[in-house]
Design goal:
Elements (H helix, E strand, L loop, with lengths): L16 H7 L2 H4 L4 H8 L5 H5 L2 E2 L7 E2 L15 H35 L10 H10 L9 H17 L13 H10 L6 H11 L8 H31 L5 E5 L9 E6 L3 H10 L3 H9 L5 E6 H11 L3 E3 L4 H6 L5 E4 L8 H4 L6 E4 L10 E2 L7 H15 L14 E5 L3 H9 L7 H8 L5 E5 L11 H11 L2 E6 H9 L7 H5 L2 H10 L4 E5 L4 H14 L11 E4 L6 H12 L3 E4 L8 H15 L3 E3 L3 H19 L4
Parallel strand pairs: 4-5, 4-7, 5-6, 7-8, 8-9, 11-12, 11-14, 12-13, 14-15, 15-16
Antiparallel strand pairs: 1-2, 3-10
Helix pairs in contact: 5-7, 5-9, 5-10, 5-24, 6-7, 6-10, 7-10, 9-10, 10-23, 10-24, 11-16, 17-23, 19-26
Bound molecules: FE(4)-NI(1)-S(4) cluster and iron/sulfur cluster.
Amino acid sequence: MSKSKGGCTSCNDITGASTKDLLNQDLAKQVRTAYDRIEDRGVSACLFGSGGTCCRICNMGPCQIIDGVEQMIGICGATAATVVARNFARIVAAGTAAHTDHAREMVMGFIETAKGKTPHEIKDVEKLHAMAETFGIEIEGRDKNEIALELGEKALAEFGQQQGTLTMLKRAPKKQQEIWKAKGVEPRGIDREVVETMHRTHMGVDQEYKNIMKQAARCSLADGWGASMLSTELTDIMFGTPVPRRALIDLGVLKEDQVNVTVHGHEPLLAESLCMAAEDPEILALAKKVGAKGINLAGVCCTGNEILMRRGIPVAGSFIQQEMVLATGAVEAMVVDVQCVMQSVAQVVKGKHTDIITTNYRAKMPDAIHMQFEEDDPLGSAKAILTHAINNFKKRGDYYIPKDNKLDVVVGFSHETINYMLGGRFRKSYRPLNDNIINGRIKGLGALVGCEHYKYSDDVHFKIAVELLKNNVLVLATGCAAQALGRMGLMRPEAAAEYCGESLAEVCETVGMPPVLHVGSCVDNSRLLIALTAMVKEGGLGEDISELPACGTAPLWMSEKAVAIGQYFVTSGAHVIFQNLPVTGSKEMNEFITNGMKEEYGACWDYEEDPIKLAQKMIKAIDGKREALGINK
Ligand code: XCC
Ligand code: SF4
């Protein structure tokens, strides 16, 4: 895209109205965004990298491998299958590590909360008790903080555990557990699986692609049923399990007359503290003093999802909008912690009054300000950050807020909520959902998760979702995919009548829910594991996840975390389709991922570039499951 050629509209990949509107303003034309950088690079992506056959794990290389060409194997003799499997496993390990480090922070914050050392409290006692039961913790006659402390310590031990198996694996359907046991992929400890994956993919260790993929499976389970699930559950206990609420999404949520502070990253400990501090009378008085009517907190990426789900705080933008949020010139500070923060954000704000504030010692950035988030004084840190932002308010120069671009959404569909809404208030069971699937009113479930990026058009999620809804597939969404769907209007209850097939529309209208359910952030994909398990346990739809009429996709995956998520879904029996995967450079690996894994775990990966065809593949997979269950009338 070249803005000199008349603004962003020359890039036909942008369909988002707010982004288009903003990039066509004079003040945004000086800003260089990822759209520009893609255009300016002038070189296409490396074919070896795209196919997974570039190996640079030792200094005899880097070696580019061509499958089937003898002179083009690695200097060490590594074949295409080995190199592709190693690279794939390393992606899974990196994604798992990201979720793990996030989860560890949450568990540590949880322990401090149980000790009464944070401004937070144990909110969801019912969930606390359920988790205590899973971990074999006595609840009778004990104070909630005492139970929470024991739970926190046991959860923390799961990270460093060296032997045995992770506790929450036993929440999975029996048959799934048996498969994992038989295949030898039960994770022993969360950190151990990441370390072992890195070791086994070091030069000259594991050189049998199926064996490497077995470890990739084990590592991913340590993410889904370990790190991510711990994070979701303990965060819910501490900050409240999401319930349905109305909120707003898109750039238009920024406010002219308030101090705009956007929270970008992943760990809700900081964001929750900022939410509390933003209501503090002292902070509000400071804001008034500089002429602002208040503090407008708005989320970006998954931190945005966390506070949107639990507090109804608006989301200003998703991953691909992080630069746009700043290009408005209306943001006093963007507070970031870890993951998915583009280094370019610090450049976008050059010449503007906006500060990028890094807050985690793990993640610093040139040209940003660092204000460490002190875990033993979260409120103090949050107030210091907000005070800094308030002081910027008067310096705000030219700005443009695409005011008309904000969409109503109904969010907050934790698996408990889905249970409650589709299962009936008193029964608290998934039976009515299962019944609706069995009688065909709902064809099945489609999970639309993961990131966004700039290589494809930004309406890919929308196109897939609409195709699914038309065919009566209920859509569950997380991550930036959820935000994209919200922005396009699919999280309004009224969207059911506009986009769904007749029978799905009827179900949504009866319940009063939107046809796309926002389930949360990326760690909250673990909610989907629990929901799928609950459906299996309810009966009528087979004995394990692989029999359910459900299919997942993270079409615009960008982050390594998305591959870890996809891998744990496949290893848990759910069919997963991406737009592409870096495995095409090896015939054997390609075959194994898209077919062979099915024999091992009951599900496999697939990929498809075209969004409509991708959706149709999902529908076909769901129909296949219905056929096998004998319910495809
Ligand atoms: Fe990052 Fe989580 Fe992907 Fe969005 S969806 S781009 S991982 S923020 Ni999680
Ligand atoms: Fe090349 Fe083998 Fe070293 Fe990889 S491990 S860079 S294939 S020599």
